[in-house]
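pinned: reference chain
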Amino acid sequence: MKQTRGDEEATPDPVDTRLGARLAELRAEHGWSLGELAERSGVSRSTLSRAERAETSPTASLLNRLCHVYGRTMSQLLSEIEAEPAQLVRAAGQQVWRDTASGFLRRSVSPPHAGLRGELVEGRLTAGADIAYDRPPVPGLEQHIWVLEGALDVTAQDVEHHLDTGDCLRLRVWGPTRFRCADPDGVRYVLAVVLP
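pinned: its structure tokens
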């Protein structure tokens, strides 16, 4: 996301800047060129380059593809751009990330820690939002999806599940998934993620 102030030129969002730098570091740690990463992720070189330079705010789908290539969850990746993780994160300090193009807001509820297997995420989708992931960031990832407000359609392993307020779906993710807001007022849900 770019921030503008009056007539000043757009400046990169600080989170996007840190995220871009971390993505460049990960690629360098693996010794991959942009071309090699593009082949592994299925994302164009130009899109990868723009994300690493914080010229664009990466989408949820793009981050999911990169997390898969690097073998980490989105929360792990996002925690790597923050300071040393705390045991307690107050509501005001929980990291919020927005994919405005798709109408997705993601709040990292539980304090991030690379050594732990579980995490809680609050998701919000605006009316009509539809997000498709071509693969999980980690194969066999366990997910519990609990709808707090609204309705959500989740497709996994070619099976569609309709969840209304209060419903909870538990699954292991091996292939593509899709989250669609099924409520005219949007949906708010909790996603509990457990690494295999």
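why pinned: The radius of gyration is 17 Å. The chain is about 25% helix and 35% strand.
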